[in-house]
Amino acid sequence: MTCLLVCFPGAPRPCEEAIRKEVLLDAALGRRVAELCASASEPPSLNTVFRTLASEDILDLPPGGGLYCKATVIAEAYSQFCQASRQRCVKGQKGAEEPTGALSVSALHLEA
């Protein structure tokens, strides 16, 4: 498959304010995913996390696609949380430290 991108000098540039809002939204979604996973007694499924987020009123979602446009951001945050959780449990089993069950939101190193 080939993709050809043609850029014209007079084309509009991305708005800095929109880029900043996008970064803040991604960070907020990542933190919310971590909160949902950390607050559960056992890790929820990705579908459960997505449905929970869909039921919440989240500001600055992209028009026309809403939360579905952010599915990859949500999936990445969920994957990072699950990976960090597994690593923590493995360390606890090796005797380095005890597993604590839920991780804090800061375990994902998400920026605001």
Primary descriptors:
Arc Repressor Mutant, subunit A; magnesium ion binding; single chain; 3 helices; mainly alpha; metal-binding; elongated; PP2C_C; 112 residues
Describe this structure in words.
The chain is mainly alpha-helical and 112 residues long. The chain has a domain of 77 residues: Phosphatase 2C, C-terminal domain suprefamily (Arc Repressor Mutant, subunit A). Helix content is 51%, strand content 0%. The protein has three helices and no strands. It is elongated. The termini are far apart. The C terminus is likely disordered.
The termini sit apart by 37 Å
* Low-pLDDT residue spans: 96-112
Number of strands: 0
Computed structural class: mainly alpha
CATH architecture of one domain: Orthogonal Bundle
Task: Provide the CATH top-level class of one domain.
Answer: Mainly Alpha
% residues in beta strands: under 5%
CATH superfamily placement of one domain: Phosphatase 2C, C-terminal domain suprefamily
What profile does the largest beta sheet have? none
What global shape is seen? Answer: elongated
Task: Give the SSE order as H and E letters.
Answer: HHH
Mean pLDDT: 81
Radius of gyration: 18 Å
Output the CATH topology of one domain.
Answer: Arc Repressor Mutant, subunit A
Helix count, DSSP H or I runs of 4 or more residues: 3
Helix content: 40-55%
EC number: 3.1.3.16
Pfam families: PP2C_C (PF07830)
InterPro entries: PP2C_C, PP2C_C_sf
Keywords: Hydrolase, Magnesium, Manganese, Metal-binding, Protein phosphatase
Summarize the structure.
By secondary structure, the protein is an all-alpha fold.
